[in-house]
Specification:
- A hairpin with a 4-residue loop joins β1 and β2.
- The chain has 214 residues and is mainly alpha-helical.
- It contains four helices and two strands.
- α1 packs antiparallel against α2.
């Protein structure tokens, strides 16, 4: 068992969080029974909104305060293991790359032998047609590299070739609409910055309530 110094505490056992929760329950009840019929009713509602904002801010601060050591620990752990696993990752990559390179080279040599033999046969046929059937070209088959097996099995395991399909978009304008995904983050950023006319995009303003605590 790997040990660390982080202490797991349920949020419900943290006094400050419990106090925020109890205050939240009371504010929820007020909100459920609140009736706003006149401008005067807006005053206590606004006062409650400022309290709600403070409670939300306080609760969020406690959440971050509690999680930060764990997040730092996770970050440090990931960085440490990235370093610790670097040699084995490199060993894996180097071995895979060398196997794939060997297979590619052998396949290239086999194709070259097949191409040369096809050219020799075609040339022999032309020579025979020209010389009344006489052939002087050496048609002895070339030594072809042994085919690399798609799977190698050993006493400890096996490794095999498989197709891994990849893609690259070369002309976005030819891409079917179903594969075009709008950049919502970029659109939202420019809309909030003041650009309110974009072809193909409906942009409108929604009123929200801004609360500032004094």
């Amino acid at each position: 068992m790997v040990e660390n110094n982080l202490t797991i505490v349920k949020p419900g056992n943290i006094p400050e969080v419990v106090a925020f929760y109890n205050q939240s329950v009371a504010l929820q009840r007020f909100a459920e029974t609140r009736v706003i019929l006149t401008n005067d009713d807006l005053i206590p509602a606004t006062e409650d909104l400022t309290i709600i904002a403070k409670v939300k801010k306080g609760m969020e601060a406690k959440r971050k305060e509690y999680l930060q050591p764990f997040q730092d620990h996770i970050k440090d752990t990931n960085e440490a293991y990235k370093l610790l696993m670097s040699p084995i990752e490199q060993a894996d990559k180097l071995t895979r790359d060398k196997i794939l390179a060997f297979k590619a080279e052998q396949e290239h040599k086999r194709r070259e032998v097949e191409a040369i033999e096809a050219e020799k046969l075609a040339l022999a046929r032309r020579e025979a047609a020209l010389n009344g059937g006489e052939i002087t070209i050496d048609l002895t088959p070339l030594i072809k590299p042994e085919a690399v097996p798609d799977r190698v099995t050993t006493d400890v395991g096996s490794a095999g070739m498989r197709d891994h399909w990849v893609f690259e978009v070369q002309d976005f304008s030819l891409l079917p609409d179903e594969y075009k995904i709008p950049d919502a983050t970029k659109i939202g950023k420019v809309v909030r910055a003041g650009l309110h006319t974009i072809p193909g995009v409906k942009i409108w303003s929604k009123k929200t309530l801004s609360v500032m605590a004094h």
